[in-house]
TrEMBL record:
This is DRTGG domain-containing protein. Pfam families: DRTGG. It comes from the Bacteria. InterPro entries: DRTGG, Ser_kin/Pase_Hpr-like_N_sf. Residues 7-103 form the DRTGG domain.
Length: 117
């Protein structure tokens, strides 16, 4: 699944300049604890979170995540979007709950980092 397909499946809004359709997404990690994302998520995951602060984007950049998806209709402030643009990250927001977001992506073949080989 690429980022455009993910955007459409989640009825999400892209907030940054970056939406690289060539990025193939197979893993996602959902958490509001960035320490967990740093410790347990695989590189190249999509980060799904309801936490809206700059640490989410900094965590994504450190872990080489191509995209952060904010759930529950959360809207990051302009400096968070600007930071994501600086790092070349895609940031999306969806009105869906974190649970529904994960369920939809799982139904499309996206798995968690601890569920693969």
């Amino acid at each position: 699944m690429n980022l455009l397909e993910m955007k459409e499946a989640l009825q999400a809004q892209v907030l940054t300049d970056e939406l690289d359709e060539s990025v193939d997404i197979t893993l996602a990690y959902a958490t509001d604890l960035m320490s967990d994302a740093l410790a347990f998520a695989s590189d190249n995951c999509v980060l799904i979170t309801g936490l809206v602060n700059s640490q989410t984007v900094r965590t994504a950049e450190m872990k080489d995540f191509p995209c952060v998806i904010y759930t529950r209709g959360k809207m990051p402030e302009g400096e968070i979007i600007a930071l994501a643009n600086t790092f070349g990250l895609c940031v999306m927001r969806t009105e869906l709950s974190t649970f529904d977001t994960c369920g939809i992506l799982y139904g499309k073949g996206i798995i968690g980092p601890n569920n693969h080989g």
